[in-house]
Design brief:
Length: 320
Amino acid sequence: MNSLYKKNIHLFFLNKMILILIVFVFLFFCFEFVNYDKAENPDIHNYISNYERASWTYDIGFEYFQSFLRDFVNLDFDSFWIVTLVLLTSLFLFNVRNLPQLTVFIINYTFLSVAIGTQVRYFLSVFLFISCFRYLEGRLKKTGLILSCLVHYGSFVLLGLVIINSTMKRYIVPLVKYRLIFYVVIVVSYFTISPLVEFLLPYTRFDYYLNSKYMESKSFFSFLYAVISMFFLMELIIKVNINKGFFSKKELELVLYSLLLISCVIAFSSIAVLSGRILLVYIVFEVFLADVIYKSNKVYYFIFLTLIFAKAIPVFISMI
């Protein structure tokens, strides 16, 4: 028994070392995707100006992060930028623990790389939020979620969905049994949310979004991907329920929150800036879903992986 235990420990660490090696080889060749040419980065000049002038015009959490690296560590902007991108990549990697997740991570990291290298405030907030969501409990978790939202105020939408998700967990059986009602709510939301947001926007700091491209509808393919993903997650929940399988508490929370995210992408799809940001978060969550789906049903994992790869084909083709 002792020798078997030692063998299992050795295999565990061997698998982890192989996983880490694959990750670092991938990042060595692909980090330039996220750290792409500054001349092509639409937001980089705003970040440079804010950093060098210490304008303190961004979200307060991000400003304190900048201040620490600028005023205490004394980094110039180029060093600050590299440190930030490395931190973002590390936070994303922090949740990758096995090969099913690694496969999805490689696809989605490549797919999201330009967005990560552009929307650094948002992704820093999102990755901190996800780490708190997955690994903290109780009051510490609530505090961590709130603090991560201060890095980018747009993440308060994610916090609101966490509160809704805590209620959804109690009604998992009705959600499965009466899913038609769930779909009707999504459709009704699609037609009512846009007028409501346009009414409230002038009273917020985001009033400049009015009558801009950010208030346009999402692309057809993004919308189609969201719809397919929503049906897929709902059917996964149904199959596990019918087969009397189970998700652990953490797994159930993750699957339901992902379902809620992708449903909001559809409901808010008439507002590109809101729907698009939530879709980016869902794509990050796909990496964590991979492990849950793989353990639940290998066939569903293959379908899930095929869907994810199909989404990224245009990005891979553009790199050839």
